[in-house]
């Protein structure tokens, strides 16, 4: 039986009867209707209207029912799915286009800076390490804000939430055009991370709006995740042209145009809004700031730890301490709430930990494409403009993976889909591990296409399975699932990139030492190579000693480049081994589950034997 909320008491016929009927009738109603959930408040309101003669009458329900605790929080209203209303095909296509626009716009906000780190340095007068603060500032609020937005849009209405969030995003995109130095750019990127947080959720909601219930977790999830994944190749395809137009401000102007298109789409195509309900609890204002501080500090730590090195800066350690302390305190508060903001016990259950671990492994493997190939290209001097044919292949493979997922995704098929995705990721990373200093984008099309295809195939199945697990527990557990999913996507991607980059730097030192040990100036081959490299300066330097020093410096640079290429190959092979290990573990898990199911006797046989 659904609970009555205070806002519903004015329409409760029992409350009306208690107010308007004579005293004997009210007493009869009290004896017939025992107190239950939500009825303590109704009875308290009706009691002053009872006639004095009723005080002598017996009240068994009142004497046997224990009064509710005064500080007991109200149970959050159960989230009910909205009924499906078919739309005209043209209008449905507009909703799908808006979903794609929102997803790509949100993804470009995170990918634009990462795809153009070296070009942005000159535009804002910053070093490479300082430019990484732009990514850290964006991810700090973005990592946790989706948790608060889920409740806010339930409290204040979906349409109002959508229009206001897009309007804020437009204003922030406009302000980005005025960023002239590193400090102003970092501040605006922080605000952009706040304003962009609702876009991914809106993209998913717009895709779900036009689909019947039975297709939301198959076609809807597949296309929604594909929209979010397309941002990576698109960012690298359009960046060279935008930089040629107006450097850093070419990117911000393009983002402003996309935000205005998003605002038009959201304003002209409203979503079906569920009933508003009071779901924000006073303790949420204590728990959420702790979660936000913990997640934000962790995001900054993971983004900048590799750049400044993990043990070289004291403030990195303090960031980690603050993050752990804040998240621990938030978990203690949530564990002692009857209706928590986040169900920590459910999140820490073995199935959800298994789900989160699988997503983190997936994000670590995908770092091979987002961070690995970008770093390899920087070592072999390949720019985004030269790699455009490769990114067109990646774009096409993402579309192919999303389309295949939409066709084959059904409940129960997730393990098979994950197996195919992991196999593609393992093979693609293995092929990338054969790179040399002569490797060019044309040689990486097959391998990167496999990685993109596997990534587009893996994510929809994982999200659909997580939604099913949350719905089995109850609709109100959707918020906890959103926390798990978005945390593994934002913090998981940062963790994967940090782990990948750290592994590359460690292996580079190893290979650099091994290569330098074999380079001795007394070796005739080494001396000849130094002389050849110094020949490029022979026209401007007449001193033989200076020529030899310049040749040795060029040889050192070439050695460092070769060491980095070998380190990236090691990282690609490690990613391939990780994907293959995950595939083996998945195969063993599925085989074990099927074997246990076959060994269990059928119910009919159990009944006959008994």
TrEMBL record:
Gene Ontology terms, MF aspect: transmembrane transporter activity
Chain segments annotated as transmembrane: 161-179, 185-205, 217-238, 250-269, 290-309, 315-335, 347-366, 390-409, 416-433, 445-464, 476-500, 571-591
Cellular compartments per GO CC: membrane
Chain intervals with Low complexity compositional bias: 55-65
Composition bias, Pro residues: 66-81
Subcellular location: Membrane
Domain Major facilitator superfamily (MFS) profile stretches: 95-594
Name of the protein this chain belongs to: Major facilitator superfamily (MFS) profile domain-containing protein
Organism listed in the record: Afifella marina DSM 2698
